[in-house]
Amino acid sequence: MTDRFVPAETDMLVLVDIQRDFCPGGALAVPDGDAVVPVANRLARRFAHVILTQDWHAPGHRSFASAHPGRVPFEAVAMPYGTQVLWPDHCVQGTEGAEFHPGLDVPMAQAVIRKGFRPEIDSYSAFSENDGRTPTGLAGLLRERGVRRCVFAGLALDFCVAFSAEDAVRCGFEALVVEDGCRAIDTGGSLASARARLATAGVRLIRSDGIGD
Questions:
Q1: Which residues participate in catalysis according to the annotation?
Q2: What family is reported (predicted)?
Q3: Whether pLDDT at 188 is above 90
């Protein structure tokens, strides 16, 4: 039996990084990533408040393996702010890969939070850069709009979705993740790690068929 969840006026649906480069054929394709698109489209019509996040990297971003001679994608390196997984070049500002998936149909979205645009630091979370100190401004936006609970879907579950949900709790919001509205990269045990962190943070995993009137 699926738990029922009825969106309230104080809920915000946060659709995370549903972009071309994270979908099949993209530079950092998440397996089956485009399967989240129809789920996101349905969810967006059940919420009064919807925002999007968008990975928006400067060319030559330090999180790219290409910026570290001799390194390869998915290798981890030490950065001033901690351990950083190196990625293929992806979601570079102004490129086709950084665009939202063409099937994403959410004209009701009220804002786009761009992240990762600072060349020297990556940003998984919709709330802060990977140093855990530099804010994106999302928490302030949500507070000013009276939001109490964030519901997350998008890409990828084990990175940007999970870090965003954890930070939502850290910032004082309740957080839910729509599991069938996400897909994972799952590199080096990242999915299992993300699930454990979400459970510790008190983030509840739900399914889209349990959301409605």
A1: 17, 115, 160
A2: Belongs to the isochorismatase family.
A3: no
